Amino acid sequence: MEYKNIVLQMEDKVAVLTISRPKALNALNSETLKELDLAIDEIANDDKIYAVIITGAGKAFVAGADITEMKDLDVMGGRRFGNLGNKVFRKLETLEKPVIAAVNGFALGGGCELSMACDIRIASVKAKFGQPEVGLGITPGFGGTQRLSRLVGLGMAKELIYTAKIINAEEALRIGLVNKVVALEDLLVEAKALANTIAGQAPIAVSLCKAAINKGMQLDIDSALSYESEIFGECFSTEDQSSGMTAFIEKTEKCFKNK
Ligand code: DAK
């Protein structure tokens, strides 16, 4: 499918989705959010894709929701815009494939929120993170108040959100917002290496792990462990469990089929 503000490339088992609206620092307007929605569906429906990378074109990852579009919204318009963003980010978070955010530059407001809807974040040394919404008279609207505190803890999330402070990649690493910081020129290489390592595992098992971790974090420990047992059992209905264990025992090359 052709997109205006997104480039979607399928590279063997890995989809690389680049948000490309560089004149507005890749700010998310409704059009881009709707394209993201379609691109996630395209990735979800492609059985050959086992992992996803999201990055931004130019000097920004995503500099936030589009302020030009938001400026004149009324209450209903604000809700509609918020609902659209939340729907798309949740679709990404619950996509049955792991998603890596390769954060090349500014990840502010909706951009920081987009990275947090991904499973893993790798940042370039040029990346900057923040939730500057209170400085614009609004609250974070695409999950920032919820996902940031879950990732970095209540105190740090409240400080970042209340002060609208922008932090660099090293600080993001220190507080646990990102997994790794690398040189800008190495960012996609590192992200692809990680994506390919993940894509080399049994895809259904990886997908079930994503569901178990995400769902389990919202449950009490007994319910979470019970969910873990349930999905562990499910693995034994797959060909990949049988072939993976056979390859180990027979000391042969493993070859997963996503079945
Ligand atoms: N929206 C629209 N345009 C943007 C933009 C944005 N978020 N960020 C940058 N741009 C545009 C600039 O206006 C400029 O356009 P022109 O003037 O060239 O036409 C162009 O991108 C280049 O930007 P700068 O000239 O400012 O570039 P600099 O390198 O000097 O500065 C910057 C880079 C990232 C520090 C700066 O652009 C900046 O501060 N941008 C805004 C960052 C920001 O505040 N982001 C948070 C946006 S608020 C909700 C739903 C969603 C949200 C909230 C509620 N509900 C419905 C409840 C989410 C809110 C946000 O994300």
Report on the architecture of this protein.
This protein is of the alpha/beta class and 259 residues long. The protein folds into 2 domains: 6-199, 2-enoyl-CoA Hydratase, Chain A, domain 1, CATH 3.90.226; 203-250, Lyase 2-enoyl-coa Hydratase, Chain  A, domain 2. It has helices at residues 30-44, 67-70, 75-93, 110-116, 144-152, 154-163, 169-174, 187-199, 203-216, 221-235, 239-250; strands spanning 6-11, 14-19, 51-56, 60-62, 99-103, 106-108, 120-124, 128-130, 166-168, 180-182. The strands form 2 sheets. The protein has a 6-stranded mixed β-sheet with strand order 1-2-3-5-7-10, sandwiched between helices. Strands 4-6-8-9 form a 4-stranded mixed β-sheet. Strand 1 (6-11) and strand 2 form a beta hairpin. This is short-chain-enoyl-CoA hydratase. Its EC number is 4.2.1.150.
Sum this structure up briefly.
The chain has 259 residues and is α/β, with parallel strands linked by helices. The chain is built from eleven helices and ten strands.
Overall tally of structural domains: 2
Distance between the termini: 26 Å
As residue ranges, the low-confidence spans are none
CATH architecture call of the largest domain: Alpha-Beta Complex
Number of E-state strands = 10
Give the bound compounds.
Answer: 4-(N,N-dimethylamino)cinnamoyl-COA
Strand-residue fraction? 15-25%
Could you list some keywords that capture this structure?
single chain; 259 residues; alpha/beta; 2-enoyl-CoA Hydratase, Chain A, domain 1; Lyase 2-enoyl-coa Hydratase, Chain  A, domain 2; 2 domains; six-stranded mixed β-sheet; four-stranded mixed β-sheet; 17% strand; binds 4-(N,N-dimethylamino)cinnamoyl-COA
